[in-house]
Amino acid sequence: MKKLLILILVSFSSLTELFEEHYEEAEKIMKNMTIEQKIGQLFFPRFNNKTKEKDIKEKFPGGFVLFAIDFNEQEDIVINNMDYIQKLSNDILGLPLGLSVDEEGGTVNRISLYHRESPFPSPQEIYDEHGIDGILTIDKEKRDLLRKFKMNINLAPVADISYNSSDYIYDRTLGRLPEETADYIEADVNGYVNDNFSCCNKHFPGYGNNTNTHTGIAIDPRPYETFLHEDFLTFKAGIEQKIPMILVSHNIVLCKDKKHPASISETWHDILRNELGFSGLILTDDLSMDAIKEYTDNYSPAIIAVNAGNDILLTSDYYEHLQAVIDAVKNGTIPEDKIFKACRRIIAWKIHYLGARAKDEGTDEGSSTDSTHTEQKDDDDDGDNNTTLIIILCVVGVIVLSVIVFVLLKFVFCKKAKVTSGLTEVVENSDKFLQSQ
């Protein structure tokens, strides 16, 4: 009975994709976009302050990835710069930018290097001293700092499992066994999602004890059972908490694809979508890394990445990769439907997290606002709509479960009644038999 109810609940909750409630509005926005603008939304290039105007006006990126060097300025200069590019994106395309950083803590910090008394410590350090509660407290401080500088995505927390201090990825992980790491990811992602701030688990399918893919290829020989029983636990924990983004590594994981890095492997993307049930945004690691360049069959890695199933492409070779995808769509190498689905998912995420709106739904076409902070009315409307949807889903769920319980109980009672009736008949027949003797 319990297993049946769990199966029903899982099936019921998996009927919709993560941002599907916003697809209709996303499609309204997309109707006024050219194919070049839709393709542009798939790219989150490395931010370049010198080319930012050209990038936004001519290339229409979905967002940017910022590094520590971009914050090595006075606070007001950085903030004004981010406000400027958000306004520019809204003026040009009517869509906000996704502004992302890797503020992991420990060895990987961007903003806190320059704008905090000391950089954020690693989750491992915090956990050793204060447990999960300590991490949740620090990550709330991270989100506040990122918001102050107009960021709306933290490319963290790291969901990789490593408990060997000699591993390349060890210092960036919790440094604990799978179950403990999964508990940490579950709690931390829940904190981000409830605070309406986008986070990203990485590096799917799990980094393991592999080498640095920024400088060379990493070959992962581990059997699939290891991923099932260890690495996937943390990613499932994030997915169950509705994490909006998962980043895929450049490791070649032999158990499922001996030819392609996971970031451009259709097989690994199918596993993430269909076996783990993730329906949010899939990101590549930087497509300009040395690890990927020799494994793309003479195609641009951006083309392979789109066809593999990625929604967002991170790259330091923006113009080259963008043009390659545009050309591939025009000559049929990339089906236009792939661009449509990825772009729709990205815009739906922007509606959900960044407050994007179609112009025909009450927004003033002649004005633009800082999209990272939507008007209070829009926030209230979102809250009301979400509350209504939750209530409807709960009511439907209760009705479905009630019907199932009623049918099961009726079945049980009917069986009992039949047994009782059968016993009564046997007793009566026995009495008749004895009386006749």
List the helices and strands and how they pair.
Blueprint: H1 2-13, H2 23-30, H3 35-41, E1 43-45, H4 52-59, E2 63-65, H5 75-93, E3 98-101, H6 112-115, H7 123-148, E4 153-154, H8 178-194, E5 198-204, E6 219-220, H9 224-240, E7 245-248, E8 252-253, H10 266-275, E9 281-284, H11 301-308, E10 313-315, H12 318-330, H13 336-354, H14 376-436
Parallel strand pairs: 1-10, 2-3, 3-4, 4-5, 5-7, 6-8, 7-9
Describe the structure.
The chain has 437 residues and is of the alpha/beta class. The chain has two domains: 18-372, Alpha-Beta Barrel (TIM Barrel); 375-437. The protein has 14 helices and ten strands. The longest helix is centred in the last third of the chain and has 61 residues, at 376-436. It is globular, with a radius of gyration of 26 Å. The two termini are 48 Å apart.
Radius of gyration: 26 Å
Figure out the total of helices: 14
CATH class of the largest domain: Alpha Beta
Number of strands: 10
Looking at the overall shape, the CATH architecture of the largest domain is: Alpha-Beta Barrel
The strand order across the widest sheet is 2-3-4-5-7-9
Strand proportion, as a percent range, falls in 5-15%
- Uncertain runs with pLDDT below 50, 5 residues or more? 1-14, 361-388, 412-424, 426-437
> What's the domain count?
2
User: Could you describe the largest sheet, including whether it forms a barrel?
Assistant: 6 strands, parallel
Under CATH, the topology of the largest domain can be stated as TIM Barrel
Helix/strand order:
HHHEHEHEHHEHEEHEEHEHEHHH
Helix percent reads 40-55%
CATH superfamily name of the largest domain? Answer: Glycoside hydrolase, family 3, N-terminal domain
